[in-house]
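[#protein-structures] MJ: dropping Na(+)/H(+) antiporter NhaA here for a structure pass
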Amino acid sequence: MSPNDPLPPLARSVFPRGSWSEATRIADVLRRETVGGALLLAATVVALVWANSPWASAYAALRDLRVGPAALHLDLSLGAWAADGLLAIFFFVAGLELKREFVAGDLRDPRRAALPVVAAVGGMAVPALVFVLVNLRTGSGALQGWAIPTATDIAFALAVLAVVSTHLPSGLRTFLLTLAVVDDLLAITIIAVFYTRELHPLLLLAALVPLGLFGLLVQRRVRSWWLLVPLAVVAWALVHASGVHATVAGVLLAFTVPVVRSQAAGGPGAGPGMAEHLEHRVRPLSTGFAVPVFAFFAAGVTVGGFSGLTASLQDTVALGITLGLLVGKAVGVFGATFLMARFTRASLDEDLTWVDVAGLAVLAGIGFTVSLLIGELAYGAGSERDEHVKVGVLLGSLLSALVAATVLRLRNRTYRRLCEAEARDDDGDGTPDVYQVPPAQG
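AK: finished. structure tokens for Na(+)/H(+) antiporter NhaA:
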């Protein structure tokens, strides 16, 4: 390496290893998300079985049961409460994770952040293009669902990794998590910009009051739930009433939370700040309750056997979603990564191959939570086309999971060898040797 080279070796790797502290934190997050993925999978299976059983009418009645104060325009069905309310909790956690990555994580370095951001953009643009091409000649507003196959469901993706028992290298694991978090941010931006049917600016401005008070309290390190929760609920209700999808409130609230400690508390080196505290408190509610309940109400599509599945796929919307998730995501993520390596002089880590990247790119095609949400916004919850959306999302995600599992299984032996190498600590200092700065090479 030339002394005049502007980039250090780690920044020149497509999937840099990152710091030991960051790898440890990411591994802990992945373990928690894997449990959430298992619950999400269980809720989906229960919903599908119930919706295709002789008691399907009971499932529909439960999903459509309306509760809430009508005077505040919050007399919503249980399915709507799950989509508008519970997913706001999910996006609050995603917002906290995203801010932590870019403020205190390894991705605070723009050179490290560039790859997952570009890959996320590619992984959203290409599936949308595939969907549009499939539905270009289809009328009846089919193109409204162009954004459905653009989202990656991190919980389901990690659940697949747990099932296939791969020893995914830390660089790829970090990349997968970051890709999904950036993906969520782009998805919520798309929802706010393209799926806002009617906007009430005054109510949206009014939401800035509880949002600002919430931000003021968390900046002052106030942790009293009886102050923070009511302000968050009021902000959510005003955003919901404004016409902007209420999940946007979750991201906005998360972005007000400080990540590192203030100078008075010991400065950034003193440890994590409010973001980790709130994430620790809210993440179990998100992964253990909010997302599985949403999946339970959103995934209950009556397939009608093989003939019903075939009939659903005759709708180009379902076909576009399936191809967008299975083909578009893989091409978008892999293509963006390859182009970054080609045009930025970045090189693949010596322990990895492009087969690993291909497996990860296919895995990103597991879209569920946000894809189903966008489908409801595009075509209307409970509509016939919304039922076809669910079939397309489920089929595309299932096929992506099967292909990715096959590819990653083939690489399992290599992953195990890499993990054993990473765990070596020859000098006995408690930090694996691969995370220590190598001696200067002449």
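MJ: nice. The domain at 9-195+245-423 is CATH 1.20.1530.10 (Na+/H+ antiporter like fold).
AK: one more thing. The longest strand covers residues 66-67.
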